[in-house]
Design a protein that fits this description.
Blueprint (H helix, E strand, L loop, with lengths): L10 E5 L4 H12 L3 E6 L2 H13 L3 E6 L8 H8 L8 E4 L14 H29 L2 E6 L12 H21 L4 E8 L8 H4 L2 H9 L13 H8 L10 E4 L7
Parallel strand pairs: 1-2, 1-4, 2-3, 4-5, 5-6, 6-7
Helix pairs in contact: 1-2, 4-5
Length: 253
């Protein structure tokens, strides 16, 4: 039974891996046996994350790149395949939430949010899918959000992008799952990251959000581990096109 969750011999690419949830997931996949490529813009932060993984005996490489550079995206996909071979696990953790009031959203900020949160996961996955098809197995793990289902203030563009991620994940599953490629999305509740620093910097706000969960607390990084390994492994072979909320029951209330 334990072999269902073993990622030995797998090759993972994690975007947004310089900090927060993306960085944590890179380490989790490496501990489970995968060879991991960490991708983000900030090389220094990537090297720090990679060194932490190596100190635990993990196999890791880093790739500093800007996913919003459309002309470079195909090259980024190719470079991600150089250290260990073409990834058969893709984790689309890169994202942005500019937290602008509705009146302050511009075409530029709208495009940045939609492109990084919704466009990049599709186009990057499509570049890697042919190799997954060849071996008859692969995993695409997108990042949804509480805002895939709920509306929050000052997050209209972000919420629109994450609502789109839910449908993107279902459409990916329809397109690729017959070839053995599972496509699911993980929707975290409130976890302490750079993106949520304004929330966790205010005890009254974070306390109110914790009270809205069924469990009664906000997330800890380790709460993500089991779901991530399950999604990335053979254990989820018959699960595809799903958005899984790891939110302490926030959306259940």
């Amino acid at each position: 039974m334990d072999n269902l969750f073993d990622l030995g011999g797998r090759r993972a690419l994690v975007t947004g891996a310089a900090s927060g949830i993306g960085r944590h997931i890179g380490a989790v996949l490496a501990r489970a046996g995968a060879s991991v490529v960490l991708l983000a813009r900030r090389r220094e932060r990537l090297e720090e994350a990679a060194e932490a993984i190596r100190s635990e005996g993990g196999t890791v490489s880093v790739l500093a790149a800007d996913l919003l550079d459309r002309d470079a995206l195909s090259g980024i996909a190719a470079k991600a395949s150089e250290p260990f071979g073409s990834p058969d696990i893709l984790v689309n953790a890169a994202g942005v939430n500019l937290r602008q009031p509705v009146e302050e959203i511009t075409w530029e900020s709208w495009d940045q949010t939609i492109n990084l949160n919704l466009g990049v996961p599709f186009f990057l996955a499509r570049m890697l899918v042919p190799q997954m098809k060849e071996q008859g197995w692969g995993r695409v793990i997108n990042f949804a959000s509480l805002q895939t289902e709920r509306a929050f203030a000052n997050s209209l563009a972000y919420g629109a992008s994450k609502g789109g991620v839910g449908q993107l994940t279902r459409a990916m599953a329809e397109a690729w799952s017959r070839d053995g490629i599972g496509c699911n999305a993980l929707a975290p509740g409130f976890f302490p990251t750079e993106l949520t620093a304004p929330v966790f910097g205010d005890d009254s706000v974070s306390g109110k959000l914790a009270a809205q969960t069924a469990i009664g607390r906000n997330g800890r990084m380790e709460d993500l581990d089991g779901t991530v390994i399950w999604m990335a492994s053979r254990a989820s072979d018959y699960v595809t096109g799903q958005v899984v909320y790891v939110d302490g029951g926030f959306t259940a209330k």
